C-alpha cells in the first residue's frame, strides 16, 4: 500500500514545485569534503541536466517518507480522511491490467485502515475497563496494517555518499499473515524490491570523471518539453541499468504479481512525469518474493527433474563407493589380476568417491610432470577469487557505500593486487597454452621409439589422419562440457530456490534460458553480446577453447621450422597488442580494466567488455607465450643450465616486468590521469610483460633454475587443490553471488581485514564445493573418456595402472587447463 502513498506524494510534490517556489539546498551549501562534492554531483546528475528543472533535495526525501507515516498516524489518531482521499486516487487502477485478487487485497487494506481509524475515533472516550480491554484487543489484531508501512524502505544515512538502498525490512513484511474473512482467505505479506532506472540521457557515470560541481543556474533554464525527447538519440532513450536511481523495498499482498506491481507503478509515475514535464524514470524493475506454494521448488518441473537427476547421481556414487570399498579394493589387495570388462562396473567405479577422493588427495606426481604448474594454477585461482570477492559485492548492488569505496580503493598501494586481478586470467591462458604445447610435442610430435630406445617412426602419432584431429577436438570438448553443463543447469534451476531475502533474485535464470546454446558451442564471447550472458565468467572457457582450436597451427609451424613458428607466435602477440592499442585510442578506453578514483572504467565497462576483454584476438598474447614456453620445455627435456650471471639477470628482468605489470598503473589509479606515452606503452606491453615474467618463472622452475621459488610453487599441498581448479573456477562466482544475494541487510565495506576474511571463506567454500562437484561429475567423465579413447583401457584396466602405495588410479593425462 505504501508505494501508492509514495507515488501520490511524489505526484503532489511535482505539482507544487512546478507551479510554486522550488525548495533548494540550505545556505550551508555543499560539504567541504571533496568526496561529498563528487558524490553529490553523481546524484545530482540522476535528477538534473540542462533540459530538466528537477533537482535532488533532502527535503523531498523528508516529505515523501513523512507522507507514509502521516497516513498511518492519522489512522492511529482516528482520522480516516487521508485514507479515503488515497482510495479515491487509487480508483483508476481498477481499469488497469491487474489481477482481481491483487486489487481486492489492496482495497481491503484501505478498508481495514479506515475501519481502524473509525474505531479509534469512536472509542476515544472509552473509560470502562471492559471496554478498554476489547478495544485494546481490536488494536492488537489489526496492528499488522502498520507493519506493512513499517516494512517499506526508509531514507538511510549517507545518501550523498551513494547509499541508494532503501530496502526496508524483509522479515517484517514476511511475517504478515492474517485471516481476512470467515472463508479463511488470507492476506499475506510479499516483499518486493523496486529498482528505478533512469534514462541513459541522465547517466551519472558520464560525468563521473569530473569533479566539477553542478551548474547552480541550470535550474533557471527552460523547463523540459516532452517533445524534446524526440530529439534524443536511441542510446539516450535506453535505460541505464548499471546503477539504479533508487532500490526501494515495499510490502504488497502476495496476490499481486511483479507484473501487477510494475503496472501500477508505471501508471502513477507516468502521471507524475506528465505533471512535472520531466522524463526521469525509464523503467522500474520489480522483483518480488513470496512463500506461495506455486513458487516453491516442488512446483518447478524443471528443477524437480534436476533434483531427480541429482538423486540418481547420488545413488550411483553411494553404490559405486560401496562396490569399490568392499569388492574392488579387496581384490586389489589380494593381488588378483582380474580385469574389469563390464561397462556397468566401469561406470560404478567412475563414480566411486573413495577412489576419486584418494586421487584428489594424493600428492604423488608423475616423473615428467611440470610440478611448479600446480602452485601457479592454485595461486592464480586464488587471485581470481580475491578479485571476484570485491567484484561481485560491487556489481550485486548490495553494498551501501560502494561508490565511496570504489573512489577511495585505488588510493591504497597494495590494493593494486586486487585491481589487477584480471592478470590472473592471463596466467591461466599462459598455463593452458604451455600445457597444450608441451603435451602435444611430447605425446604427438615426439619420435616413436621401441623398447630399446630406437626410433621407429618420425612421430608418436600420425597427426595427418582425420581421425586424430577428430579425437583431438572431441576429447577436449567432452572433458570440459559435461561438468560445465551440469553447473549451468544447477545455476538456473535448483540454486534459484536455495535462499531468500531482500536482495535475493534467481541467479542468471533468464540469461541462461536465452543464451545457453552459445555456451555449449563455446561462442558466448561473440554471440548475443547485446543481452546478458549466461554464466558471464565462462567467457574464459570460450576463449580457451577457441585458442585451443587454432593452437595446432602454431605447434606444427614450430615443429616444421622453429624460427618460422616463433615468428608466427610473436607476430600474433604484436597484432593482438596493436589491436588493443588502436581500439583503446579510438574508443577512449583506459589501458586496461583498471579502477581509478575517477571511475572511468565503470562508465565504459560494457563497451570494454564486449570489444576487448572477452575477445580471443585481444587475449591471445599469453596463450602464444605459453605455446612457446611449452615448446622450449619439451626441447630441453625439463633440464637447462645457464651461467649464473645470465640466470640472475633473467630473474631481475622478470621481477621488474611482473611488478610493473601489477603496480605500474598506481599513479593512474590515484589520479585518473595518464600521459599518452604511458597509455600507449602499457596497452602494448603491460599484459605481455606479465606473461613473459610468469613464463620465465615456470620455465626456470621446471628446468632446475627456480631456487626457493620452485620450492614454493612445487609445494605438495598445491597438488590436491590443483586438481580442483576447473570446478573451483566454475563454482566460485555462484558461491559469492549466493552470499551477496542472501544477506538480510546491505553490506558495508570497512577494512582490508574484513575483505581478506571474506576472501578466505570464499576460497575454502569454493574448493570444498568443487571437491564434491569434481567427484560427482568431472572425474567420472575423465575416467570414462579414457576408457572410450585409450586403446589400452578400452580393453581393460590393468592392475599396473594402480599405484601400490596409494591404491589410486593414476591417470597421467589428467591435466586440467584451468
Mean pLDDT: 79
The helix content is 55-70%
Low-confidence stretches: 1-32, 36-62, 209-214, 218-224, 792-818
User: How many DSSP-defined strands?
Assistant: 7
Morphology: globular
The portion of residues forming beta strands comes to under 5%
Radius of gyration over alpha carbons?
Answer: 32 Å
- Our count of helices gives 32
Please state the structural category: mainly alpha
How many structural domains does the protein architecture include?
2
Straight-line distance between termini: 51 Å
Regarding quaternary structure, how should these chains be classified? single chain
Notable characteristics:
818 residues, mainly alpha, five-stranded mixed sheet, two-stranded antiparallel sheet, 32 helices, globular, disordered N terminus, disordered C terminus
3D architecture notes:
The chain is mainly α and 818 residues long. The protein contains 32 helices and seven strands. The strands form two sheets. Strands 1, 2, 3, 4 and 5 form a five-stranded mixed sheet that branches. The chain is globular. The N terminus and C terminus are likely disordered.
